[in-house]
Design brief:
The protein is of the alpha/beta class and about 425 residues long. It has 17 helices and five strands. The chain has a five-stranded parallel β-sheet with strand order 2-3-4-1-5. Helix 9 (about 245-265) links the parallel strand 3 and strand 4. Helix 1 crosses helix 2 (about 35-65), helix 8 packs parallel to helix 9 and helix 12 (about 305-315) packs parallel to helix 14.
Length: about 425
């Protein structure tokens, strides 16, 4: 017999022996399962429990990890002293610490931290305010100090499927993990098949997983002295397409989960939205008893001193007092506008007055274009339209005064007045 034939025969013998061993092993397993089904079920349950524990620990580890996209604010120094309402010195220290961490709405921030971030959790939060007032800025910098956080910006969401994918990524849940798919299979679910078939089903499953992970953290002996709760932030829910029925349902599910977790002291949920969304739209989507369980915080424009502090902190070149006053009086003190001004100044190295002049000129041009378009639209109430034009004309004719105590030594104020009057003339010419 040749060596090639002996090799082929040996390989065939090995494969035959392996097949026989597999058959014998499979038969033995079936016999054991048939003779002792309770033992098999117990082992499967233990395996399922290990998978669940591993999954929840992975989620908590992800929530506590450092993610630079949440905020670019530096960490706030810890203050070991306990604050009381009567202690003005400690109150001043806390305000200064908040400023170091990029928090400028100090009164609102103090209420949010004391009412929402300290266990036990009783109510979930809604932070509302006009566009650009700094709701996202505030909540991201406050949560930067907390140990377990997930922030989902609804501006990134395009439908329920996108919401589930983005939320799963934020909380550290992997729908594509084969062990997670096995967990949802028929054999590990007690005879039912909970495999999510729609984005809404997947969202419900993910919210259940977030709740179970939060429960594990709550009852972890290592957490008994700190009483940390996960904080889930759903930022800018105004960006959702609420004309889409599944999206409206998903938003209702998020609010229902937030209310339930607050009542059970499981986790904290915070939503941010505009004033109209809070006052007019949410009531048509979310049940009244769910909304009543929310603690609402209103964010407005910054006080003048805080606006000046923001500009000083974020402008590369130190602004002069006249620059600070110019920004406050011409652009206002909303954080969104201050951020854009600082960004343009830092990148272009142009003086503040020039940036403001361009900003106002662009605003005048946009307003004139919008008025022209509105005038040509069918169905416009001409009486109301003329009333609007009359109001704008009156605003354009408001006299410009020099504030008391303003220095004119370098001609800066006179140049400023000239620019403002030029903008008024531009509007009148457009009329």
């Amino acid at each position: 017999m040749s060596s090639g034939q002996r090799t082929t025969q040996t390989l065939s013998d090995i494969l035959t022996a392996a097949s026989q061993m597999i058959l014998i092993g499979s038969t033995a397993v079936l016999i054991v399962c048939a003779c002792n089904p309770e033992r098999v079920i117990e082992k499967l349950a233990e395996y399922k429990e290990r998978l669940t524990t591993r999954r929840h620990l992975k989620m908590l580890e992800h929530l506590s990890s450092t993610r630079l996209h949440l905020t670019a604010a530096p960490a706030c120094p810890a203050d070991d002293e306990e604050r009381t309402d009567q202690d003005d010195d400690v109150d001043a220290k806390e305000t200064a610490a908040m400023a170091l961490n990029g928090v400028y709405h100090t009164d609102v921030a103090r209420d949010v931290k004391s009412l929402l971030f300290e266990a036990p959790v009783i109510r979930y939060g809604i932070i509302t305010g006009a566009k650009g007032t700094g709701k996202s800025w505030l909540v991201r910098r406050l949560t930067a100090e907390e140990p377990y956080v997930a922030v989902l910006s609804m501006g990134l969401v395009n439908g329920v499927k996108s919401m589930v994918d983005e939320l799963g990524e934020e909380v550290g849940y992997d729908f594509d993990d084969w062990t997670e798919r096995m967990l949802q299979s028929y054999f590990l679910s007690g005879g039912s098949n909970p495999v999510a078939t729609t984005p809404s089903d997947r969202l419900a499953f993910l919210l259940d997983e977030m709740e179970e992970a939060s429960w594990k953290l709550k009852y972890d002996p290592a957490n008994a002295t700190t009483q940390h709760r996960p904080i889930f932030v759903f930022d800018d829910i105004d960006a959702l397409d609420l004309d889409d029925a599944p999206t409206r349902k998903a938003l209702r599910m998020l609010f229902n989960a937030a209310s339930k977790w607050a009542r059970e002291d499981t986790a904290q949920v915070i939503f941010t939205c505009g004033i109209q969304m809070h006052r007019e739209i949410l009531g048509t989507i979310v049940r009244r008893e769910v909304l009543d369980n929310a603690k609402v915080f209103h964010v407005d424009s910054l006080p003048p001193e805080q606006a000046d502090r923001f500009l000083i902190d974020h402008l590369t070149a130190t602004p002069s007092p006249s620059d600070l006053r110019l920004v406050r009086e011409k652009l206002g003190t909303r954080i969104g506008r201050l951020i854009r001004t600082c960004e343009e100044s830092n990148k272009s190295h142009r003086p503040i007055p020039a940036i403001i002049r361009d900003t106002l000129s662009t605003a005048v041009a946009d307003l004139a274009y919008a008025v022209t378009e509105c005038a040509s639209m069918p169905g416009v109430d001409q009486k109301q339209f003329q009333a609007l034009l009359t109001y704008l004309d009156k605003r354009a004719a408001v006299p410009i005064y020099v504030h008391e105590g303003t220095s004119k030594s370098k001609g800066g104020v006179q140049a400023e007045l000239k620019d403002v009057k030029m903008l008024q003339r531009e509007w009148m010419r457009g009329r």
